[in-house]
Amino acid sequence: MNRNNIEKLITLYLVNSSELSSKQLEELSGWISASRENAVYFAKAAYLHRNIHDCLCSSAIAKGLEDTAGLSCDTNCFSIPAEKSELDKIARSEEKQPPLPKKKQISRQTNLKEPELHKTERRFSKGLLAFAVSGVAAVLFLVIYANFIPVQAGKLIQTHDVHFSDDTKIGENNEIYADRYVRIFEGIAEFEFISGARAVVEGPAEVRLTGKNKAFLSYGKFFAHVPERANGFTLETQNCDVVDIGTEFGVETGIDGQTTVQMLKGEAKLSSSRTQQTISGNAARGLDKKGEISNIEPNTSKFARKINIGSLGVWRGQNISIADLVCGGEGFGSGKGYTLLPLKDDWKHMMEAGNVSKVQRMPYQVFKEVPDNKYVDCIFSSNGENDSIQITSEGLETKALRLSQGDSFWGIAAGKKGSEIPVQFNKRLFTVESEEAVVFTANLGFTIDLRRIRNTVRPLELDRFKSGFDINPGGKALESKLDVFVLIDGEPSFSKMEVVPEDKQFELDITIPEDARYLTLALCDGGNSNGGDNGVFINPEIELKFE
């Protein structure tokens, strides 16, 4: 159908629908029902017409137009009253008045002259008329702009295996406009609000960015990272509101109204129709469809926090496992169940064949690069006569380790819970009892290349090194002691001397500087020349963060 003809039909219908013939009405109705776009176009035209009418018929503007231009507002349009119509009104009024009393007239002859008719012109103030017209134009502009120029609430940053619904509208430059539904059938999308708040939404989900610092989640998973400048970010659901006071939280809600709120960092105010409370730390709350709030078990890995992270793909708050790196993985569980990085290559074959007891001790300093491992730069022994020991493939040396005349065994071993690491302690293989462990004897150490890890996990940042530590005696005949060192770029960030089996297991928590290149874990024999004692780093990991 011709666009001009449609415009004419819409205009006639909105101004005075009685002027449309049955055929024209049928034609217009058919066009509207032909597609969703046509229906939206007609609805916008009707809405604009109503706004213009309501605006111009407001008491102030209508009076100004009537005073200056002689325009009056009726239900359909502005009209200029005809002079004849006004005279007719006066005439009808006069007819209803009572007759005047008659006076006695003195008869005289008078020459009557027919009066001349003069055309009366209505004079307008050009200034007032111009003012009225400009005022109306300004109001019209505001009405049109407010209702038909979309307001940007944020933008789409990136996606991961995402499938949007056909009716999800995203701007040419990835703009997301306020109050427009974003429906995700599957996959994950990351958004940034105008305020600076960032959201990761995992499908299936339906969300509306309702403003520059708030959103409404109909269903799905929603993670929010809120910087200080966006404090007060609000996420609404069917049965609760979450107002962020801190930095990170996740919300999952279903079509049935069941909602989970997981705090990850900072604080948030949680409110429903029944109650409200503040949650913090790693606390989690559940809400039923009536708005009743209950405590639930936290699950900090439930929500996607960042996407397209190297081989990981989706980051859900996991930390980098040092044991997995030693086992040849990327730090997120892709490595083997257990492994050994031996000081001598032929040792590995012997141990894999079950000849663990035949592995020789190493009474002198050894340095060995590990080219087959992407993240472990090298392994080394610390015994020898030199007080300066090489700890990286680029030749970095340290004097932080205690000089030892003792020996060392095996190499660097690592494994996951339940695995038997192919190294022998007290004539038995070491069995991993914790979730993960890195195990090696005194007078050994290894270095991890932090730069390679950063290149893998960007834009995530390395935050802290954390681990538990315990000593596993090598034998009853000799005194058991260990010196424990954690070095960053060759400088000690942690050291504890002469740890004995009677000491309780302790925890390490070390900040990793932004420019740090190497992380080194090393053990010395505690000064007793016994290299057979074993140090166990329990669940060693590097915490990640995103700013």
UniProtKB/TrEMBL annotation:
Transmembrane segments: 128-148
Keywords noted in UniProt: Membrane, Transmembrane, Transmembrane helix
Segments for region (Disordered): 91-112
Domain of life: Bacteria
GO molecular function: sigma factor antagonist activity
InterPro entries in the cross-refs: Ferrdict_sens_TM, NPCBM_sf
Protein name listed in UniProt: FecR protein
Species, as recorded: Sedimentisphaera cyanobacteriorum
